[in-house]
Amino acid sequence: MEIFILVVLVVGLFGGFGAGYLTRKQWAKNRQGTIEARIEKLLAEAKTKQKEVLLAAQDKALKVLEDSKRDAKQIRQETEIAKRRLEKRESLFDQKLMDLENKKQDLADKADKINNLKEEIGKIRDEQVAKLEKIAGFTKSEAEKILMENTERSIADNLTQRIQKLESEASEELEKRAKEVLSVVIERCASSHAQENTSSVIDLPNDEMKGRIIGREGRNIRTIEQLTGVEVIIDDTPQALTISSFSPIRRQVAKKALEKLIFDGRIHPARIEETIKEAKQEIALDIKKAGEAAVYEVGVAGLDPQLVQIIGRLKYRTSYSQNILNHSVEVAHLSVLLAEELGADVSIAKKAGLLHDIGKAVDHEIQGTHMEIGRDICKKYKISEDIIKAVAEHHQDKPTTLEGLIVKVADAISGARPGARKDTYENYLQRLEELENIAKSFAGVEKSYAIQAGREVRVFVTPDEVDDLGAHKLAKDIAERIENELKYPGEIKVNVIREKRVTEYAR
Questions:
Q1: What is the pLDDT of residues 89-112, one digit of tens each?
Q2: In what order do the strands lie in the sheet with 240-244?
Q3: At what angle do helices 324-342 and 269-298 cross, to 10 degrees?
Q4: Cross-strand partners of 461
Q5: Are 412 and 404 in contact (CB under 8 A)?
Q6: Do 157 and 318 touch, CB atoms closer than 8 A?
Q7: Domain carrying residue 445
Q8: Of 402, 404, 445, 485, which residue is most buried, by most CB within 10 angstroms?
Q9: What does the pLDDT read at residue 252?
Q10: How distant is the alpha carbon of residue 339 from its chain centre?
């Protein structure tokens, strides 16, 4: 029974394997048929699409070919049109060239005719000139000279009248405007104007003091002169001695030292040396304080301390008895007011006004004018170029900057106002004489007079030698000569007078 069951199991097992194999084979066969069908279907679809693409490509190629043919045809047409247009232009250009050649030839013919006519006209003119010269009794050059002289004489009279009219109108308008500006500025500037006379005369308590100052065999006076660099003059003037020196500071040191020695009463070389040393220290301190006070009063900051020291030296410098430090401070104030009125740079005008006479602080020690020295000092202490120009040009006729012109005007206002300066009698007479001599040095001047304290020069000319136009020129030349050769405060008016008198007597 067990064997039977085992045989049944074996048979069933093999039967199952066989059935499974047949089933698997049939399934594989069915599947293979399905894949092949799909492949064939895909191939058919690909061939169909291939045909469609080929047809589309053929259609597109045909369309492109047709477009290319159409474009080529259009290009050929445009090229043909351009060709015909160029041929037409070329023919027109050739025609124009021919016309130009013809015109050139015509112009050449006309030029030849004109030259021939010029030659004929020249011959006729020469013949006419020869006939006119024969009839008039003058050569061509003589006739031209007479005509030019008559024309110049006529034009000179008209020109003189025109110059007088223009000068009168311009001077009146400018003078009116200048007076308005200057009056406003002078009214606003209320600085005091105290004059200082740097005296070199020392009063003595008695004449016995002269001998004590001289000392035994002159040792005291020699010590004073060696240590201060001045010359002490002791003459017959009662109870006084004179100090002479080119340097105002040296003179001030000597004066202060002598005053101390006279007050102390002990006068000998050791004491003299000590007193002079003290006087120098006091003067140096006084110079420093004076410079700082001036800078503070004007309101200028940032200056080098050594430059401030040089400004302080102006306290002991005078010009026509006017203290230069006070004058510089006043010019700075006036420059500020003028700059505000005229719209200039106030800072530049202020500094230039304060420094414009800085060269006078050391002009006794350095060669050159005080403008040149002042310019070099400003360059040394790194002052701006605009200020340097104003300092160097404040005495020139035409300063290059507006600030320079303002400083020049402020300097003239400060020096020319009443009471600002005074002159010695000898210098006053010498200046008047120099003014008259300058005027007399010109040709045609008959006589000249300096009037109004040297503020005006009246010049009388010979009318036969100087005409009206020449009188204008002579006035300008005299004024320029005075500006170049003389030093004076303010301005000087040059008045040229041309007067012709004809006298006849009836008997």
A1: 888 888 888 888 888 888 888 888
A2: 201-203, 240-244, 231-233
A3: 10
A4: 445, 498
A5: no
A6: no
A7: 425-498
A8: 404
A9: 85
A10: 17
Q: What's the CATH number where 292 sits?
A: 1.10.3210
Distance CA 360, CA 195 (A): 17
Query: Do the Cβ atoms of 243 and 251 come closer than 8 Å?
Result: yes
Q: Which residues pair with 495 in a beta bridge?
A: 458
pTM beyond 0.70: the answer is: no
The Cα angle at residue 358 between residues 354 and 361, in degrees rounded to 5: 135
The CA distances from residue 378 to 127, 161, 332, in Å, are 75, 48, 16
Q: Low-confidence residues of the chain, pLDDT below 70?
A: 1-2, 4, 7-8, 10, 25, 27-34, 133, 136-140, 143, 147, 150, 152-200, 320-321, 416-428, 453, 487-490, 507
Please name the helix (run of DSSP H) or strand (run of DSSP E) that holds residue 303, with its range, or none: none
The two structure tokens encoding residue 56: 């589309």
> In this structure, are residues 330 and 189 in contact, taking their beta carbons and an 8 Å threshold?
yes
Beta-bridge partners for 498: 461
User: Under a CB-based contact definition with an 8 Å cutoff, are residues 431 and 454 in contact?
Assistant: yes
Query: Measuring CA to CA, how many Å separate 435 from each of 167, 340, 357, 439, 455?
Result: 24, 36, 25, 6, 10
Distances (CA, A) of 170 to 164, 175, 261, 342, 468: 10, 8, 63, 19, 19
Tokens representing residue 171 in the block = 């001077």
173 and 264 together in one domain: no
Residues 229 and 362 grouped into a single domain: yes
Q: Looking at residue 171, what is its pLDDT?
A: 61
**392 within 8 A of 407, measured Cβ to Cβ:** no
Q: In whole angstroms, how far apart are CA 278 and each of 248, 272, 275, 309?
A: 17, 10, 5, 18
Coil, strand or helix at 320: coil
Residues 221 and 163 in one domain: no
383, 390, 397, 436 from 400: Cα distances, Å: 18, 8, 10, 32
Query: How far, CA to CA in Å, does 422 sit from each of 322, 326, 328?
Result: 8, 15, 17
- Both tokens assigned to 191: 């600085």
- What pLDDT is recorded for position 344? 85
What is the rounded CA–CA span in Å between residue 303 and residue 79? Answer: 85
Residue 459's H or E segment, with its range, is: strand 456-461
Residue 404 CA to residue 359 CA, distance in Å, equals: 16
Domain count, the chain: 3
Q: Is residue 85 part of a domain?
A: no
How far from each other are the two terminal CA atoms of the chain, in whole angstroms? 211
- Do 356 and 227 belong to one domain? yes
Whether residue 503 contacts residue 464, with contact meaning beta carbons closer than 8 Å, is answered with no
pLDDT at 168: 64
User: Strands 240-244 and 318-319, how do they pair?
Assistant: unpaired
